[in-house]
Design brief:
Layout: H1 3-16, E1 19-23, H2 30-45, E2 49-53, E3 82-86, H3 98-103, E4 106-111, E5 122-125, H4 132-142, H5 149-162, H6 173-184, H7 189-197, H8 202-213, E6 216-218, E7 223-228, H9 230-235, H10 246-251, E8 258-264, E9 270-276, H11 282-288, E10 292-293, E11 297-302, H12 306-320
Parallel strand pairs: 1-2, 1-3, 3-4, 4-5, 7-8
Antiparallel strand pairs: 6-7, 8-9, 9-11, 10-11
Helix pairs in contact: 2-4, 2-5, 4-5, 5-6
The structure holds manganese (II) ion (MN).
């Protein structure tokens, strides 16, 4: 199906139904929440009834997004006529909300993950978009609806969080043009950036400092590895959300080509996150261990002891690295 045809189907779905359940994925990020919130503003502006559903609670840093205080857990949702998945590459991303999605009269998927196979009745998948929020921006234009100041904050948040503040390779001239247009319409980027990047809980700064000072370098400094156990996190009163970004700090060390961060979960398993500077396909490695992701960023869950998990991932990365 052509992209024009897919967009036309999405527009027909928006115009044809009166009530919508929007889905953000498990472990919600700025794009899945920003694009769902922007979509919610658009639909409500058209007089529709809308709810947003997510398996997990909205992380502290995204609670400033307009409307996300209304995000419901799947068990609290009504389940409206039309289900719309925002930034969800597959149905596993809904977790418990999957039955709601499948029971809707009509379903749509709006996404930019190239792995999205089109599981809905209508699928608008653009892997050239830096963020799903960029596609929502296009939907506003297609419907000729003005982007309200609230919607601008949501779209901007989706784009900047998925592009590493407009610096990752997925950033396109179009991403920056959209941001420029939002700025022309009065978006306060200083304020939004302060909320996303410069409003850090003290416990987060402390637990990240702890993880960094215990970081190890392996294989001539080309692999960086940081770990955190539950007791270590408890020392700082830190949650899993406070550990976001540690793997990126490991990646940023000059000699590091592949970064690994291993965090113990409450259930005793270990969450392994990886980043690669184009010298090993970490998505391939993660897949071998039952996880997923891209060549540059991927992860999986290990139910082996910590020492075994470290040994396994180090040898897998070493075997995969091309320096
Ligand atoms: Mn995204």
């Amino acid at each position: 199906m052509t992209d024009d045809r897919a967009l036309a189907e999405i527009i027909a779905g928006i115009e044809g139904y009166d009530s919508f359940t929007l889905f953000s994925h498990v472990s919600p990020d700025g794009d899945t929440l920003g694009s769902a919130a922007a979509m919610c503003i658009l639909l409500e502006g058209m007089g529709k009834t809308v709810e947003i559903v997510c398996e997990d609670r909205v992380p502290h840093i995204y609670q400033f997004l307009p409307g996300v205080d209304r995000v419901k857990l799947p068990q609290d949702a009504v389940g409206y006529e039309c289900a719309v998945a925002m930034d969800c590459a597959d149905v596993q991303r809904f977790k418990k909300g999957e039955y709601l999605f499948k029971n809707a009269r009509y379903s749509m998927s709006i996404d930019h993950h190239f792995t999205n196979k089109g599981y809905a009745d209508a699928n608008l998948i653009r892997d050239t978009a830096s963020a799903t929020a960029e596609i929502v921006y296009d939907i506003y234009h297609e419907l000729d609806k003005p982007i309200t100041p609230e919607a601008a904050v949501c779209i901007y948040t989706g784009i900047v969080t998925d592009t590493g503040n407009l610096t990752y390779s997925i950033t396109t001239p179009k991403s920056i043009r959209i941001v420029a247009e939002l700025l022309e319409n009065g978006l306060n980027i200083t304020e939004v950036n302060r909320r996303i990047y410069r409003t850090v809980p003290f416990r987060k700064t402390r637990v990240q400092g702890f993880a960094m000072s215990n970081m190890q370098l392996e294989y001539n400094g080309t692999i960086g590895i940081a770990t955190l156990t539950v007791p270590q996190m408890e020392r700082f009163g830190a949650t899993s959300e406070d550990c976001e970004g540690i793997v990126d700090m490991v990646r940023d060390v000059e000699s590091v080509r592949v970064a690994i961060f291993i965090r113990e979960g409450r259930d005793g398993t270990y969450k392994v996150s990886m980043r690669s500077k184009e010298c090993a396909d970490v998505g391939k490695i993660a897949k071998r261990f039952g996880g997923g992701g891209h060549a540059g960023a991927a992860g999986y869950t290990s139910d082996r002891p910590l020492s075994t998990t470290i040994a396994e991932i180090l040898s897998a990365v070493e075997a995969e690295m091309v320096l």
